[in-house]
Amino acid sequence: MNAPRPLFVNVRQAAGLLSLCAAGAMLSACMANPFVDAKVDPNSPVAGEVAKVANARQGYPSFRDIPATPNDLRPVGLYGREAEAVKLAGAELIRATEPGTWTLQNSESFADKARRDAGPELPPANAQDSDAFARELRERATPPPPR
């Protein structure tokens, strides 16, 4: 059966109107304040404090309370220029220290100077001296008392 299309146009409009009414009903439920008639248990240890805070008239901040912009700040564009300078300095450092950009020279003279600065070279330890020292320590040691 081929029904003409204009018969069902109203159904689409009715569905749109119904969804709009449903959305309005849900939003209107959010507008009510559920705490208006809320009661505080008088036996509660915080009942006095709750009543005092709930009935206190407090001032709310306004836009006049926002402090003015300080005058001693640097311009916004200067931040970007300084960041770019830092990036350029970092790139220059990487370029200057890349592999193949420097070589070790005069390393033998540097090592000789370090050896001279360290002082005279000590002779290696004698194994017999170490054994005698260990034997002397064992003889002097007293074992712990038995339990």
Low-pLDDT stretches: none
Characterize the overall form: elongated
Helix content class:
40-55%
Largest β sheet strand count, sense and barrel closure? none
Overview of the molecule:
The chain is mainly α and 147 residues long. The chain contains five helices and no strands. The longest helix has 22 residues, at 9-30. It starts with 8 loop residues before the first helix and ends in a 7-residue tail after the last helix.
Provide a short characterization of the protein structure.
The chain is mainly alpha-helical and 147 residues long. Helix content is 53%, strand content 0%. The longest helix is centred in the first third of the chain and has 22 residues, at 9-30.
Defining key terms:
5 helices; mainly alpha; 53% helix; 147 residues
List the helices and strands and how they pair.
Blueprint (H helix, E strand, L loop, with lengths): L8 H22 L16 H9 L20 H21 L10 H12 L8 H14 L7
